[in-house]
Specification:
Elements (H helix, E strand, L loop, with lengths): L1 E5 L9 H15 L3 E7 L17 E4 L3 E3 L2 E3 L3 H5 L4 E6 L5 H10 L5 E5 L7 H20 L3 E4 L2 H5 L4 H6 L4 E3 L16 H6 L7 E6 L11 H13 L4 E6 L5 H10 L6 E5 L6 H7 L2 E4 L10 H8 L4 E4 L4 H8 E4 L4 H13 L4 H16 L1 H17 L2
Parallel strand pairs: 1-2, 1-6, 2-3, 6-7, 7-8, 8-9, 10-11, 10-13, 11-12, 13-14, 14-15
Antiparallel strand pairs: 4-5
Helix pairs in contact: 1-15, 3-4, 8-13, 11-14
């Protein structure tokens, strides 16, 4: 089967949607499918060194109009005519409408849409998102043959709730996955401790996420406030922040202003090859996201597969995963986050058990091989019905 995936970001750009598309493409190819991933050409020469050990399924299309992760790909319709099935990763402003237009002209070709997350923004951007969501989102979802969601919990609380309740037969709950061979428990790398000025005998927290305006919802400020309180209470903890972007320096300065320069380590963007080793440094993973723009949190699965328990915001979708691998706290409540962190490290005799439990859950429930097996069945049913 020839399958096209369409997504607004793709490796080496660090972002959940692009990485999910890459993993789906990789595993679907093992089922014998011919996969192509269409994404914007953000730069004339894309750095592929992070993909050197894997087949690259991407075809980067020229985007005459771009803003952030939004892009208009005028040639997409012509490309899609070559495929048996099309899979759109939503949201993709500027191109999702073109996919809808293509589908209206090709009603016999199946269209699958993964609804990744709601769109959020401040000021004019937020107003545009709101109008788009109200007018265009139902039209785009309306032409899909199947709509995949990471959890029904999320979609029931999302901007697509009304559409979901009226069209439940279109929806399939399919969690995102994790490569449990790449992300797995290992010995801590002594070189990374020295490279990043970390102390081996100090409890270590980990945050992984983009630090640009597109990832404003990650809640780094909440974690910094919690770290400040922990220091005030003489709790000795160090925190690694993995992720790059234009806001990174802002967070570094905020941490310094709070007197946390020795407790926080902003290591910047880490390659996909190195990332698993950073998870192995952690005793506890934190995802303090502040709104439903965070729909699932693939990083939670990466932590669990690495044998690292998690604490995350009590958000729809996110909590579905977090309760499998740890604890949740009320959104933006940094004091509750402090309490959970303190509780975790006061029960040191249980930590080894927690680590094994979260690893086992990741393997049994969230491995990409089992997730994509279900996706393959969905594709086959749609193509067979044509």
């Amino acid at each position: 089967m020839k399958v096209a995936h369409i997504v607004c970001t793709y490796p080496p750009y660090y972002g959940g949607m692009g990485n999910i598309a890459f993993q789906m493409a990789s595993y679907l190819s093992l089922f014998g499918h011919k996969i192509k991933v269409f994404t914007p050409q953000y730069s004339p020469k894309t750095d592929k060194k992070e993909l050197k050990d894997k087949q690259d399924y991407v075809q980067r299309l020229s985007a005459p109009l771009q803003y952030g992760n939004a892009a208009y790909l005028p040639t997409i319709s012509k490309e899609l005519d070559k495929f048996d099935l099309v899979h759109l990763h939503y949201p993709f402003f500027g191109t999702a409408n073109l996919v809808r237009k293509w589908k209206l002209k090709n009603k016999n070709k199946p269209l699958v849409v993964t609804y990744h997350m709601d769109t959020r923004g401040d000021g004019l951007k937020g107003f545009i998102f709101k109008i788009y969501t109200k007018f265009w989102m139902p039209k785009i979802l309306g032409v899909a043959d199947k709509i995949l969601v990471s959890s029904f919990d999320y979609i029931e609380h999302s901007d697509a709730r009304k559409f979901f309740l009226a069209n439940k037969e279109k929806f399939v709950e399919l969690p995102f996955g994790v490569d449990t061979k790449i992300f797995c428990p290992r010995q801590k790398d002594d070189n990374l401790f020295s490279k990043n000025n970390l102390q081996k005998d100090v409890s270590t927290l980990l945050f992984v996420g983009g630090m640009d305006t597109a990832h404003y919802f990650k809640g780094i400020e909440i974690l910094l406030q919690a770290l400040f309180l922990l220091k005030e209470n003489n709790v000795k903890i160090q925190t690694i922040f993995v992720g790059g972007g234009k806001l990174r320096e802002k967070f570094v300065l905020e941490a310094k202003g709070m007197g946390l320069e020795n407790e926080t380590h902003f290591v910047g963007h880490i390659s996909n090859e190195e990332l698993p080793s950073y998870y192995n440094l952690a005793d506890l993973f934190i995802l303090p996201s502040i709104n439903t723009a965070e729909a699932f949190g693939v990083v939670l699965l990466e932590a669990m597969a690495s044998g690292v328990p998690i604490i995350a915001s009590d958000l729809p979708g996110v909590r579905t995963v977090a309760k499998d691998g740890g604890e949740v706290f009320p959104v933006k409540d940094f004091q509750a986050l402090v309490s959970l962190i303190k509780d975790y490290f006061t029960k040191k005799e249980n930590i080894a058990v927690y680590k094994k439990q979260v690893r086992d859950i990741a393997v049994e429930k969230y491995s990409w091989s089992s997730v994509v097996d279900r996706l393959d069945n969905i594709y086959s049913q749609l193509v067979d019905k044509r």
